């Protein structure tokens, strides 16, 4: 055990040195992820090299194999789905457990609620997060409130809703949105967004077994870009627990999903160019979120930068900023800063100007340090 811990300390030191010198691109993230998963190995047992969509497939495969009540349904899932996340599952488990639905999101979620209330493990796929809005009433007024309105006599806690999420480079206004803040305002559901294959599988399996309806948003730009050694057996990563990815002393960088990798690049740039020590946190669960971990970090660093792709007004960064301001006001050395998408529909050819890239975040770090 001591030998293993020694290797981990050495690895963290080497990773810090590399990140301080090299600016990682999104595609180069896979190298760091592979090293991280090799050294830390979250779970025992055999692993396999997987990208993010394959890790989702593995989680669904584990669930179907272990839970005879589990069913997967949605638009085009029978042949594998648009992003191939359910490929091969219908052939392996049969058309009664993995099947297509009509193009009707409110029907997909309503059907899933009924299945979950009847005792089945219902896993619904919305083809893109942008298409989830026709199901808004079913999620907010039915799924989220089912347990409450029945006095806990009935519930649909076995319902998990998956959806590809975020920008992808060419998705434009109907295939790029990040709608997590819409649902964060609704008590009764959990919202989870992973950053990597190992995280995706563990968090998805936790959502599936959780006794509350969950929405699991999958960063589609990472489906093939992020690669790790992922355990083949089932495992869970706890919900509502943020993860400190890099310790720091001068500023806290908080994000989720794809933006976590941007923050890691920003942390390396800040260390190299400014000598600024950044603490990087992946929030992972949007609701209910880990207030304690975030506030503990801000008390230490005195500064908080929150970044997400969704528009800045009413985005979840605003909720985080308000809470941290209330809890950590006397510890703040600079105003809490948000670097987010603009208050416009998501553009097509102007996507590079819209997204909160590393340069915008780095400029925010400089402003906060010089405040």
From TrEMBL:
Its cofactor is thiamine diphosphate. It catalyses: N(6)-[(R)-lipoyl]-L-lysyl-[protein] + 3-methyl-2-oxobutanoate + H(+) = N(6)-[(R)-S(8)-2-methylpropanoyldihydrolipoyl]-L-lysyl-[protein] + CO2. The keyword Oxidoreductase applies. SMART domains: Transket_pyr. CDD domains: TPP_PYR_E1-PDHc-beta_like. It comes from the Eukaryota. One of its GO terms (biological process) is response to nutrient. Its main location: mitochondrion. It is found in: Mitochondrion matrix. Keywords: Mitochondrion, Oxidoreductase, Transit peptide. InterPro entries: THDP-binding, Transketo_C/PFOR_II, Transketolase-like_Pyr-bd, Transketolase_C. It holds the Pfam family Transketolase_C. Its EC number is 1.2.4.4. Residues 50-225 form the Transketolase-like pyrimidine-binding domain. GO terms for cellular component: mitochondrial matrix. GO terms for molecular function: branched-chain 2-oxo acid dehydrogenase activity. The keyword Signal does not apply. Heterotetramer of 2 alpha/BCKDHA and 2 beta chains/BCKDHB that forms the branched-chain alpha-keto acid decarboxylase (E1) component of the BCKD complex. The branched-chain alpha-ketoacid dehydrogenase is a large complex composed of three major building blocks E1, E2 and E3. It is organized around E2, a 24-meric cubic core composed of DBT, to which are associated 6 to 12 copies of E1, and approximately 6 copies of the dehydrogenase E3, a DLD dimer. Together with BCKDHA forms the heterotetrameric E1 subunit of the mitochondrial branched-chain alpha-ketoacid dehydrogenase (BCKD) complex. The BCKD complex catalyzes the multi-step oxidative decarboxylation of alpha-ketoacids derived from the branched-chain amino-acids valine, leucine and isoleucine producing CO2 and acyl-CoA which is subsequently utilized to produce energy. The E1 subunit catalyzes the first step with the decarboxylation of the alpha-ketoacid forming an enzyme-product intermediate. This is 2-oxoisovalerate dehydrogenase subunit beta, mitochondrial.
